[in-house]
Amino acid sequence: MAKQQTEVRELQEGSYVMIDDAACKINAYSTAKPGKHGSAKARVEAKGVFDGKKRSLSQPVDAKIWVPIIDRKNGQIVSVDGNDMQVMDLETYETITMRVPEDKDVSPDENIEYLEMEDQRKIV
Amino acid sequence: MFPGASDERERSDANGQTAARDGETDARGRESDRGGVNFVVVGAPLDVSTTFQPGTRFGPRRIRTFAEPFDDYDRRTDQHFSQLGVTDHGDVRAWDDVEAYLEYLEGTLRDVVWDDAVPLMLGGEHTVSLAGVRAVSPEVVVCLDAHLDLYDAYDGNEHSHAAVMRRILEVESVEEVILLGVRTGSEEEWGRAAAEDVTVVPPVDVADWEPGAELENRDVYLSVDIDAADPAYAPGTGTTEPFGLEPREMRDVVRALAPHAGGFDVVEVNDRDDGQAASLAGKLLREFVFSHADAASEPAGE
């Protein structure tokens, strides 16, 4: 899986993080102050990029954590067939099959922006 | 640890976090052990804006201590407290940036809600209830209290314990607040209390009050400020107010509301008595758990 390691302290709202092996976008980040005898902890609340599920984690700020590498790409819809559509990557000209999002109307020749992580994709 | 609860004490250092330090994300740390838990005790020892007598930082510890003599078995509901899936998360250590603390505390409590459990918060000054309400997102907040706590700001502080109900009314999900046992407030506060989204039930009427149709099919959060009790019963609190409620009146309110409530707190206990306030607080928490669990175990439709 395309990912890199960082420390919890480096995370921020709007960035990505792996929770339960799922790529998530952080929508809340709060830290507890350590006091005299503790270590600072951070709590991260995030939403799955590809599955939309809410997840959270609570960790010391110096704990190591994985961050997914997600590419933002441009593509052109070649054809639409029921719930699937053929999309051409405008950088590599490779054609891929994607599921048509339920909340979007798509039509051939339309340019779209999408997020890609390995074989997972989501239209922005 | 709250007597009868299992321990989920947060470690204050990183021991036990080896998985995370090896680079594998140990999501939620030890909280993944929460399977099957129904209630989570969370201490919130905030003691920043207390007026008159401070000491709420000792509230959670006192409540746990003075709950020790209580029997595990509850004859009324035929249940054992230790078998009801109560775990103690320990305290969320407080610091003096109240806004940041409330945000972190809210997250801790929201994790409980996401685990389909009921948060049971031990205050701490009443300000912490704001984090509880934000985490639970109820439509109705019912509060036992001697005071209205409806200041827009007290001494310029909008996060004062005397302004907590005003802040709670600003939470998006909250449609109304019901205040039971109130017997004092400023002119400004009574003005705010006259609005449609606030109901005030004076001490003399609390015994006859019961949750009506307005609570059916609505999410409820129950907050108990221990100063709702007459100071004779709970002297260990910051701002004592005579002519208050009897403990049994408070107990009956908790019993009646527990089946409807998705979150509970008991706040404003300090260490300036011989344990009376803490004992009452711990007992009310247990009454909440017994009544909530008892209602949940009844077959639907009964």
From TrEMBL, chain A:
GO MF entries: ribosome binding; RNA binding; translation elongation factor activity; translation initiation factor activity
GO biological process: positive regulation of translational elongation; positive regulation of translational termination
Span of domain Translation initiation factor 5A C-terminal: 69-123
Location within or outside the cell: Cytoplasm
Residues modified as Hypusine: K36
UniProt-listed SMART domains: eIF-5a
CDD domains: S1_aIF5A
Keyword tags: Cytoplasm, Hypusine, Initiation factor, Protein biosynthesis
Function: Functions by promoting the formation of the first peptide bond.
Protein family according to the UniProt entry: Belongs to the eIF-5A family.
Protein name from the UniProt record: Translation initiation factor 5A
Lineage of source species: Archaea, Methanobacteriati, Methanobacteriota, Stenosarchaea group, Halobacteria
Automatic annotation (TrEMBL), chain B:
Keywords: Hydrolase, Manganese, Metal-binding
GO molecular function, one term: metal ion binding
Co-factor: note: Binds 2 manganese ions per subunit.
Compositionally biased spans, kind Basic and acidic residues: 1-13, 21-34
Reported cofactor(s): Mn(2+)
Gene Ontology biological process terms in this record: putrescine biosynthetic process from arginine, via agmatine
CDD domains, per database record: Agmatinase-like_2
Binding site for Mn(2+) 1: D145, H147, D149, D225, D227
Superkingdom field: Archaea
Residue numbers binding Mn(2+) 2: H126
InterPro entries: Agmatinase-rel, Ureohydrolase, Ureohydrolase_dom_sf, Ureohydrolase_Mn_BS
Region described as Disordered: spans on this chain: 1-34
Pfam families: Arginase
Claim: Transmembrane helix is one of the keywords in the record: no
Family: Belongs to the arginase family. Agmatinase subfamily.
PANTHER family: ARGINASE/AGMATINASE, GUANIDINO ACID HYDROLASE, MITOCHONDRIAL
Protein name: Agmatinase
